[in-house]
Fold:
Amino acid sequence: MSSTHASPGSTGYARALAEAVEAEGGKGLLQDVGSVLAAIHDAWEGDRTLRSYFLATEISRAQKHVAMETLVEGRFPKLLGNFLRLLLQRGRLALIPEIAGAYATILDERLGRVPVTITTAVPVPESDFQAWKDAIRSSVGGDAVVTHVVKPEILAGAVIRVGDRIVDGSARRRLNALHTSIIERGMQRHALQS
Structure:
């Protein structure tokens, strides 16, 4: 699931769902609902027909409720099914990506997991990635969940995000810093010559 910035409203929905789920079934159910919610997110993002149907204004709310019942009945944990029904009733199904992202963050916090993202310009060999994961897990402590993302625009090096902290060792950042330094030096020389 890609990271999505959650609005305060989406975060509120995710927190309310997490609290209800944990109260009913503890951390095990919290994780189960997280897995199902991630799959719902992926289906929502990946299936344009599904998304269009539930967001279409020309389809009646009654028809959407029937379709929702078909989707959730017996397939999802009861609390999650009720939650999706509530989102439909309130016209908030479009918030599913944000809610799923916020729920994943809450789940990580409650389970003591630390999300770590390593971004490189090119794919790295599995042995190197495994060595990075081991080093990060030993330095971060807790349960580090390490993912790798490839973004050619960083040119070279790596950007590592640990929770909300970022270590940017990319060539793009170094080139930008060099560019800024050259401009500042040029401005200083110009000021001294004036």
Notes: The mean pLDDT is 84.
